[in-house]
Design a protein that fits this description.
globular, binds 6-O-phosphono-alpha-D-glucopyranose, Rossmann fold, Glutamine Phosphoribosylpyrophosphate, subunit 1, domain 1, alpha/beta, 3 domains, eight-stranded antiparallel sheet, 609 residues, six-stranded antiparallel sheet, 35% helix, 19 helices
Length: 609
């Protein structure tokens, strides 16, 4: 989950590389480094953020038209200067930056040590620079040496390399770590994701696994591991640079929460068949009858996407009568989960690159299941490897804590629920009513956002507390879990999500005046039970913040603080409630002056297992 940038062209490489690194900083921010080849090789590294690297670069002359850069999220070795990329071998003939894990690095390192190589870092990545040096002794050719070195490593990698032996090239290889190549006029910008590229060009090549690219300023050649040419053309991407920038917002997280109404519109555009009371998805059509005959659904995902999956499990089980399970992707991969060829495995992932989720997709395919991706990033690994798929079209999500992606995933999953339910026994009327409601959902989310001042005041009032419980039942149980996760991620405050029914089985013991509970108590079939939970908390002296349905004044007599959301069907109420929890976490983290977009120790896209 590090970020890689490369540039080759007519411009000075350094400013392009630094601008790219800043856009990729959310992928990892333990240390950063840059290398440029001009008259000579210039290399600079620093622990910490990119601004620290910029300080190191002050007054230095890094002139040259080819270079690579890296921002790191440590896996092997501490976030020190020595462990920062780019890495060199024993001399500075070859410079490499790597994202992923070289699984056989210990084996390779001991061979290389035996051949006299001296290592400077504790990283797995450095072996690749030494390996290149070693291969060059045989091939006397950068490209051939790179290809041979790639054939010797195992694991996950996005690797980019430059060499003073051949200054006119950048060599790139990919396996399970994203790499895109922006194709400009006589220039190429290579990066771990689009946000570093779209400021220069919209023409982009997504490298696939086991492909090697040779980038020169005026062309790209792509081959596979057998050295056969792969004919791949650049595709136009739709993202604008503006979409990837903060605009007038203080943080990406707030900007992204406020994009929710637009995100809902984009998720449903072209997919509503209001008269037929159902949805259509172009990306599912090729599965045809196989999809209709699915007996069981297994949803796999991580983090916030997992909670969207849990919500879908409730919806599918209640409305489609399809047996549905949801599994954390890393657990699914352990291989103990029973999957058959008549099953549908749905992988939900904003980035489409999460290693555990991708691994689960591969495992499901191995066992013959039909695989579906619900993915935001177009062209990402999960979107390429699943049999069928639905794109979220939510635009780039930069904040490490995911918000708008959850809204988009939930909207798509609500449509998918109706799509399946109408093939089973949901009536035309029920389908039409739900479709009508979904098409107006963006406006209701807009009304929730209109309550930001109230939510901010409540968050500020509760910023002194050290622990929170989030409580919900049925469809709002996943929202309690997601609300607690959001608070933990951005404020570092301890929070746990529970199903309301579990309160009396343990958590109630913790409740006192210092332990507030955030209850999602919107109107629906479990409303009375949530009221009882709130009474239980109040009678133990606990504080209650609650999300209630507009007009429900009764709750003001029980709860200490209430945030109202518009009336909605019980099914769609979680999409309104989650926005309140997102804003609550955001404002609380803001009072505590946290680094909201880049919480410590986390990364946006976790491409290691
Ligand atoms: C990381 C991010 C989370 C995200 C999770 C799954 O942990 O910090 O915000 O929910 O990965 O990511 P995905 O891209 O697969 O949805």
């Amino acid at each position: 989950m590090c970020g890689i940038v490369g540039y080759i062209g007519k411009k000075e490489a350094l400013p392009v590389l630094l601008a790219g690194l800043k856009r990729l900083e959310y992928r990892g921010y333990d240390s950063a480094g840059v290398a440029v080849i001009g008259e000579k090789v210039q290399l600079a590294k620093s622990p910490g953020r990119i601004f620290k690297l910029e300080k190191v670069l002050e007054g230095k002359n890094f002139s040259g038209n080819v270079g690579i850069a890296h921002t790191r999220w440590a896996t092997h070795g501490k976030p020190t200067k020595a462990n920062a990329h780019p890495h060199i071998g024993c001399n500075d003939d070859f410079l490499i930056a790597h994202n992923g894990i070289i699984e056989n690095y210990l084996e390779l390192k001991s061979e290389l040590l035996g051949k006299g190589h001296k290592f400077r870092s504790q990283t797995d990545s450095e072996v690749f620079a030494h390996l290149l040096e070693e291969e060059f002794k045989h091939y006397h050719n950068f490209e051939a040496s790179f290809k041979s070195a790639i054939s010797k490593i195992r694991g996950a990698y996005g690797i980019i390399a430059i060499s003073k032996k051949d200054k006119e090239k950048i060599l790139i290889a990919k396996k399970s770590s994203p790499i895109v190549i922006g194709v400009g006029k006589n220039e190429h910008i290579i990066a771990s994701d689009l946000s570093a590229v779209i400021g220069y060009t919209k023409d982009v090549i997504h490298l696939s696994d086991d492909e090697i690219a040779v980038c020169e300023s005026d062309g790209v050649r792509i081959s596979n591991l057998k050295n056969e040419a792969v004919g791949k053309k650049a595709r136009k991407v739709e993202y604008s640079l503006e979409e990837a920038e903060k605009g007038n917002f203080e943080t990406f997280m707030k900007k992204e929460i406020f994009e929710s109404p637009e995100v809902i519109k984009n998720a449903i555009r072209g997919r509503l068949l209001e008269e037929e009371g159902t949805a259509k998805f172009g990306g599912l059509e090729e599965a045809g009858e196989r999809l209709k005959n699915v007996k069981r659904v297994m949803i796999v995902a991580c983090g916030t996407s997992y909670y969207a999956g849990l919500l879908a499990k409730y919806w599918f089980s209640d409305l489609t009568h399809l047996h549905t399970d949801v599994e954390i992707a890393s657990e699914f991969k352990t291989g103990n989960i029973d999957i058959e060829s008549s099953d549908l495995v749905i992988a939900i992932s904003q980035s489409g690159e999460t290693a555990d989720t991708l691994g689960a997709v591969r495992e499901a395919k191995k066992r013959g299941a039909l695989t579906m991706g619900i993915v935001n990033v177009v062209g990402s690994a999960i979107s390429q490897e699943t049999d069928i798929g639905i794109y979220n079209h939510a635009g780039p999500e930069i904040s490490v804590a995911s918000t708008k992606a959850f809204i988009s995933q939930a909207t798509v999953l609500a449509l998918l629920t109706i799509f399946f339910a109408r093939q089973k026994n949901m009536s035309l009327k029920e389908g039409k009513d739900l479709m009508r409601e979904i098409s107006g959902l963006y406006a209701k989310v807009g009304q929730v956002l209109g309550q930001q001042k109230t939510i901010q005041e409540i968050a500020e009032k509760y910023a002194k507390y050290k622990n929170f419980i989030f409580l919900g039942r049925k469809y709002n149980f996943p929202i309690a879990l997601e609300g607690a996760l959001k608070l933990k991620e951005v404020s570092y405050i301890h929070a746990e999500g529970y199903a309301g029914g579990e309160l009396k089985h343990g958590p109630l013991a913790m409740i006192d005046k210092n332990f507030p509970v955030f209850c999602i108590s919107t109107k629906g079939s479990v409303y009375d039970k949530m009221l009882s939970n709130m009474e239980e908390i109040k009678s133990r002296g606990g504080k209650v913040i609650c999300v209630a349905t507009a007009g429900d004044k009764k709750l003001e007599n029980i709860a200490d603080d209430v945030v109202y959301v518009p009336r909605s069907s019980e099914m769609l109420s979680p999409i309104l409630a989650v926005v309140v929890t997102q804003l609550f976490a955001y404002f609380l983290a803001r009072v505590l002056k946290r680094d909201i977009d880049k919480p410590r120790n986390l990364a946006k896209s976790v491409t290691v297992e």
